């Protein structure tokens, strides 16, 4: 898929890739259809543990099982759709290749959301990652092993200016961090240090009908300017996607606002609610000014805010900049950031 068609959107691709060396298999994602890793599940699918497994494999035991080559126990915990896509022999072949040279896999992040448990472990050198997505019974709905490319020079190079968090209240980091398994944007230079932010209450991003935008806690909440600047561009007339889950890749940013903060730093804030932007090109804004409301427009799988800093106003021809956040914030997938309203 072209960069322009996937740069925005809460969900990762609908299928996840199990990778070891040159061998790649497409595995069924966690039951969300086109919503991929946004973890809004459809019908729950479970399976019984193998009779050869005395104790079901628990999520925290997955990395050791992989390193110890206990593929039968792992495979016994695969969901049936996952089993339909990969055999136990395939799992062994990929696992044996992936674990070469790895002594340990340490937990890097975890995210419990909408009834699913998403956990990431990294090798000691940070160059390989294991991702598992589990249902409430610990069944493995998705698994991914992947070599990780990192960009340490730009990772360490923060913005010249310091920026405020663009959302008052309590917000959950769905995508954010410095590898592709915690931030699927990371592989693209134009969006490498972007974030997707949602609201979560009691482990869910919505209450009520999951197909309606108004059911999502983030929908309609205030977005504020992360710094002083001049409005460069505004899009304000794109309808919000409904039913939720139907995305608009032809207008990937949806309703959005771009702010020039000076010094070659531009903030891009996307997926505003239709008609909610309160600014127009040429307006001067101060840090903390309300500039619109969170929506679900564009290539978006549910109400959320996509935010990033770039070195130009044209997002697709600019480079993403790692943001120096106020108060030393270093948001990572699974974190909850709370800012006084």
UniProtKB/TrEMBL annotation:
Domain M23ase beta-sheet core: 220-312
Superkingdom, taxonomy of origin: Bacteria
Signal peptide location: 1-28
Keyword Lipid metabolism applies: no
Record field: compositional bias (Polar residues): 39-56
Annotated spans, Disordered: 39-62
Keywords: Signal
Pfam families: Peptidase_M23 (PF01551)
InterPro entries, sorted: Cell_wall_metabolism_enzyme, Dup_hybrid_motif, M23ase_b-sheet_dom
GO terms, molecular function: metalloendopeptidase activity
Membrane is among the record's keywords: no
The name this protein goes by in its record: Metalloendopeptidase
Species of origin: Paenibacillus herberti
């Amino acid at each position: 898929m072209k960069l322009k068609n996937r740069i925005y959107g809460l969900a990762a691709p609908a299928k996840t890739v199990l990778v070891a060396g040159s061998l790649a298999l497409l595995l069924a994602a966690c039951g969300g259809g086109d919503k991929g890793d946004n973890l809004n599940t459809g019908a729950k699918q479970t399976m019984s543990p193998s009779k050869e497994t005395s104790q079901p494999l628990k999520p925290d035991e997955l990395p050791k099982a992989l390193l110890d080559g206990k593929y039968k126990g792992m495979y016994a915990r695969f969901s049936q759709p996952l089993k339909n896509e990969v055999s136990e022999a395939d799992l062994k072949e990929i696992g044996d290749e992936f674990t070469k040279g790895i002594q340990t896999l340490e937990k890097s992040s975890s995210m419990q959301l909408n009834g699913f448990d998403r956990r990431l472990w990294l090798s000691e050198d940070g160059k390989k990652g294991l991702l598992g997505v589990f249902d409430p019974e610990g069944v493995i709905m998705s698994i991914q092993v992947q070599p990780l490319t990192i960009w340490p020079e730009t990772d360490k190079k923060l913005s010249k200016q310091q920026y405020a968090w663009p959302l008052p209240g309590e917000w959950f980091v769905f995508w954010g961090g410095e590898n592709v398994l915690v931030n699927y944007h990371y592989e693209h230079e134009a969006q490498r240090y972007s974030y997707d932010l949602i609201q979560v209450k009691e482990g869910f991003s919505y209450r009520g009908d999951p197909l309606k935008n108004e059911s999502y806690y983030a929908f309609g909440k205030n977005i504020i300017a992360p710094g002083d600047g001049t409005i460069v561009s505004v899009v304000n007339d794109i309808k919000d996607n409904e039913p939720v889950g139907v995305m608009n890749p032809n207008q990937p940013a949806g309703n959005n606002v771009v702010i020039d903060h000076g010094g070659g730093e531009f903030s891009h804030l996307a997926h505003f609610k239709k008609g909610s932007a309160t600014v127009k090109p040429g307006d001067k804004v101060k840090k903390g000014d309300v500039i619109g409301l969170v929506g679900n427009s564009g290539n978006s799988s549910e109400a959320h805010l996509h935010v990033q800093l770039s070195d130009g106003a044209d997002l697709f021809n600019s480079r993403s900049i790692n943001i120096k956040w106020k108060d030393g914030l270093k948001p990572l997938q699974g974190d909850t950031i709370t800012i006084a309203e």
